[in-house]
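Below is a filled-in request sheet from our internal design queue. Each sheet records the structural input a requester submitted and the sequence that came back. We keep these sheets so that new team members can see what a complete request looks like end to end.

REQUESTER: design group, bay 2
PRIORITY: normal
MODE: inverse folding
CHAIN LENGTH: 175
BACKBONE (tokenized):
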């Protein structure tokens, strides 16, 4: 199921300018912006590793101890292996000798300042992300999220994964 982009958050003024230019230059502005179009335009090919970077995203997060409790003091390679061993893991972030987070979502992330002498390192399972995009990237149409008062009262937010009603609409591949 393809979802139209409704809102973006955490953007810098430069990001807003780049998204505005992207929207203005699209072939068919009457069609909604789709996540695939934004991903292809602004992220494209993810690196397999980036130092002093935190790629945290809103998907399910697992601490490495949830996956391999007997590892002791983890290394970057242990974190990467744990992500590879967990089929739903698309990316991971690692703080030197201290933390490893596995994510079932994927995002580019942002630069991360070192925490004293510890550095954040981010990794992506790029072949898994590409396979997911290829399997889910049919942009023949899109669904609009309809916000329900009941959902907003229940959560304070209107979130896609809480069973909100959708309205089918037409969309196109904007890449």
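RETURNED SEQUENCE:
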């Amino acid at each position: 199921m393809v979802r139209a982009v409704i809102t973006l958050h955490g953007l810098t003024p430069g990001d807003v300018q780049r998204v505005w230019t992207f929207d203005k230059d699209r072939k068919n502005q009457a069609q909604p912006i789709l996540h695939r179009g934004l991903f292809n335009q602004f992220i494209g090919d993810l690196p397999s590793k980036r130092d002093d970077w935190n790629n945290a995203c809103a998907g399910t997060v697992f601490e490495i101890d949830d996956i391999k409790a007997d590892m002791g003091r983890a290394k970057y390679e242990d974190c990467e292996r744990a992500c590879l061993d967990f089929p739903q893991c698309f990316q991971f972030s690692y703080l030197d000798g201290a933390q490893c987070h596995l994510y079932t979502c994927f995002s580019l992330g942002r630069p991360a300042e070192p925490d004293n002498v510890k550095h954040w390192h981010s990794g992506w399972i790029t072949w898994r992300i590409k396979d997911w995009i290829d399997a889910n990237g049919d942009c023949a149409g899109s669904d609009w999220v309809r916000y329900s008062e009941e959902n907003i009262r229940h959560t304070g937010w209107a979130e896609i994964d809480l069973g909100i009603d959708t309205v089918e609409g037409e969309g196109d591949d904007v890449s």
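SHEET NOTES:
- Helices lie at 13-25, 35-42, 64-67, 76-85, 126-136, 149-155.
- The first helix runs from residue 13 to 25.
FILED BY: M.R.
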